[in-house]
Design goal:
Blueprint: E1 40-48, E2 58-63, H1 76-81, E3 86-88, H2 90-103, E4 108-112, H3 120-133, E5 140-144, H4 153-159, E6 162-166, H5 174-177, H6 184-196, E7 201-207, H7 213-227, E8 232-236, H8 254-262
Parallel strand pairs: 2-4, 4-5, 5-6, 6-7, 7-8
Antiparallel strand pairs: 1-2, 1-3
Helix pairs in contact: 2-3
Length: 266
């Protein structure tokens, strides 16, 4: 069992952390499909001024590993080759970070990946401790691909002040855009909708993929407008094929941009 020592958290089984349910016994040394082991790994942390305006400047914490394998991911090479800046326990990390956060001129704190929900117990406990120790109010956000188990929702909405979700693809194109991920679209949509029913601030990002305006962007945007109308939608047209992934151009074509305008999305 992958579990916290704290009594206020339930025992969390590896098969309950994400929609993949790989069942890796991480406390016994097994590595999950996501690449995560027993301890949380942070490969980068810095103050970032390029997030949404209500979040920036944001203190960004990048965590290694992800339960999706998007072919065009620009971040995977970083966590697989970067030097670890932290690998340890939540309490020690929180105590180390609070003095830094007290001095920083920041508007928010973001747990980002890879995918931070694969380290749910660490993220939950570290957030709880930092909030308790900080002398100033600082909103904490989970920046997530949304492919986590629904059992985590009550704990995430209790502890986080907001979410930044990525809704990457429609049901029909998920296998192409995010890799093999059972029920990707349904799981992510359910988690977005559940989070929207809490008091948390909600931002949903959708990166327009080349050739996927009608099959992905339009249905994803329509679903968001119909089901989570209060969410802040960030429709991004900044795709770049950093990895030289076969079958993708370097950036969106003029036809893609024209189609977005014709649909009234730009």
């Amino acid at each position: 069992m992958y579990m916290m020592k704290a009594s206020f958290l339930p025992l969390i089984s590896p098969c309950c952390l994400c929609g993949r349910k790989c069942g890796a016994e991480r406390m016994a040394g097994q590595i999950g499909y996501c690449g995560a082991g027993e301890k949380a790994v942070i490969y980068q942390q810095f103050i970032h001024c390029g997030e949404e305006i209500e979040l920036s400047p944001a203190f960004i914490v990048n965590m290694s590993g992800c339960n999706l394998h998007c072919p065009t991911c620009s971040e995977r090479i970083h966590w697989t080759s970067a030097t670890r800046v932290w690998c340890g326990e939540a309490e020690e990390y929180a105590e180390k970070m609070v003095p830094r956060l007290e001095k920083a001129n920041i508007r928010s704190f973001e747990w980002i990946g890879g995918e931070p929900s694969i380290y749910f117990p660490f993220v939950y406990e570290a957030t709880r401790l930092m909030k308790r120790l900080l002398h100033k109010k600082l909103p904490f956000y989970l920046n997530t691909n949304g492919y986590y188990a629904s059992e985590l929702t009550p704990y995430l909405t209790e502890m986080m002040d907001g979410f930044v979700f990525d809704l990457k693809a429609s049901r029909g194109c998920a296998q192409t855009i995010v890799g093999p991920a059972p029920d990707y679209y349904d799981i992510v949509c359910d988690n977005i909708k559940a989070a929207s029913q809490s008091a948390c601030h909600l931002i949903v990002r959708h990166l327009v993929m080349p050739g996927h305006v009608d099959c992905c962007t339009k249905p994803c945007v329509d679903w968001l407008h119909q089901n989570v109308p209060k969410a802040r939608l960030n429709l991004m047209t900044t795709f770049q094929n950093f990895n030289g992934c076969d079958g993708y151009p370097f950036e969106l074509s003029e036809d893609d941009m024209a189609r977005l305008k014709a649909l009234g999305l730009l």
